[in-house]
Amino acid sequence: MIEENVKRILAELPCEVQLVAAAKTRTPEEVLGVVEAGVKIIGENYVQEARRAYEVVGNKAEWHFIGTLQKHNVRGKMVGMFDMIETVDSAEIAGEINKRCAQIGKVMPVLIEVNSGGEPQKSGVFPDDVEPLIRQISTFKNIKVTGLMTMGPRFGNPEDSRPYFVQTRKIFERIRELNLPNVEMKYLSMGMTNSYRVAIEEGANIVRIGSKIFGER
Ligand SMILES: *Cc1c(COP(=O)(O)O)cnc(C)c1O
Fold first, then answer.
1. What is the pLDDT of residue 102?
2. Among residues of the chain, what percentage have pLDDT more than 90?
3. Predicted pLDDT of residue 127
4. Distance between CA 13 and CA 217 in Å, rounded?
5. Ligand 1 lined by 209 (C-beta under 6 Å)
6. Ligand 1 lined by 206 (C-beta under 6 Å)
7. CATH number for the domain including 18?
């Protein structure tokens, strides 16, 4: 079942679009199952849960952190395990990642999470603050900004997500054109089960899909 879901989605995605299987609440065995079915990247929201899955799956997949990041979660082990952190939304968090990565001799690729709805209660950086934050982070030696991520609304009509994706793509392109040193605007992570088709139409090259792979949570 899960295997068929993976195969169907992989067959549907254009070849330049990477699939991240959003694994929150799933067991390590379920995560291993999707990897064996062909998923190359696992997205984790919680460090503890990620560690349990990592013990089973290890380096058979890449690991993206896609959850809300708090400073106390950023430890040596954490930055050692993840291949990308998609949810950087402050210089403070970036500074902590930079510090921990320096300790283990790693350069962490990160995406800046954009609060494309501009809603105060949601995570992410407001659109106007993205460029200043990237300029600031670009001076950190052990972090490399490689793109943007946005959530948008999770439910409802997928068309309702389109304006959020369009806006995030515009920011992405504007910053890419600045050619900032130590910044490589390569990845645009947008779209979930409900909205990934619309996100791809609007330029996403990473989609994060949970329920359509694993079933409803
Ligand atoms: C849970 C989650 C997803 C996947 O959501 P689905 O609707 O289950 O596809 C994608 N991105 C993030 C950040 C998530 O937390």
1. 98
2. 93
3. 95
4. 23
5. yes
6. no
7. 3.20.20.10
CA of 22 to the centre of ligand 1 (A): 6
**In total, how many domains does the chain have?**
1
pLDDT score of 183: 98
Domain that holds residue 67: 2-214
Strand partners, 41: 20, 62
Give the chain's residues under pLDDT 70: none
Spell out where the chain has E strands. 18-22, 41-44, 62-65, 84-88, 108-114, 143-150, 183-189, 206-209
What pLDDT is attached to residue 172?
Answer: 98
Quote the ligand 1 centre to 96 CA distance (angstroms): 25
How many angstroms is it from 209 CA to the middle of ligand 1? 6
Token digits for 143?
């972090």
Q: At what angle do helices 47-57 and 28-36 cross, to 10 degrees?
A: 50
